[in-house]
Amino acid sequence: MERRRTDILILGSGGAGLFAAIHAHRKNSDLDITVAVKGFLGKSGCTRMVQGGYNVALALGDSVERHFRDTVEGGKWINNQDLAWTLVNGAVERIHELENEIGCFFDRNPDGSIHQKAFAGQTFDRTVHKGDLTGIEIISRLAEQVWARNINRLEEHRAVALIKNKTGDRLAGVLLLDIRSGKFLFVEAKAVLLATGGGPTMYRYHTPSGDKSCDGMAMALAAGLPLRDMEMVQFHPTGIYGAGALITEGSRGEGGYLTNSEGERFMERYAPTAKDLASRDVVSRSMTIEIREGRGVGDGAD
Fold it and tell me: Which among 206, 236, 265, 292 is annotated as catalytic?
């Protein structure tokens, strides 16, 4: 079995994985950094599939405090509020980094300011976007930054197991499978970063990338690492039935609305204030109720 060594091994090449690789290289360009991905770097993962945009408090009249309130209210106050606060504050820094250092181009207003559109679950128009191809813009520019640096890539390599050292108190590296050859590769690493995302492919219909197969969390669990909040699975409520194709949330932000088989705008019944711009969990639950009560469309009422 082939063996390799690296300082930092990053599993996954979505936004989190590529950002981590770039930041580690900036911190110390002498580090040997390797990104492993089961597909191709820049072509895999969920970040690339994002259509709508990136919520961040930038505009006059908006604030990180207001963004924070929307976040915890959308989470029904069971969020980890320290993490939520880090999220909304970090969003401002990340969006400036994406534009000024990574090279992303987001849509602009006539006065040159960043355009922000309405999105579900928000009390302010704060969604930064690149048309409806925001994820492609972000991941393409991140991939270019990785390619421009001395960062190793293991493409078409699927992580199989986190391997502990002889004493079992830390990781020695990761066992990977070369998808092309079918041979195993062991990568010894001083540090391993899991950036593998979730596992929506356990469901028949899903909108994220088909390579999100929950293997990262499975490896972590097998290695004895704890998992938390596993019941928190987000469903994107609008898509093309049976195809697993997403219809961007921006369509509702632009005035689109949902109707049942009777032509009724049913969201007014479940969320009279937000209506069709209610948060995704509310819209998903409302749609499920409509289907179960016989007001769904098509053969998906079961």
Answer: 236
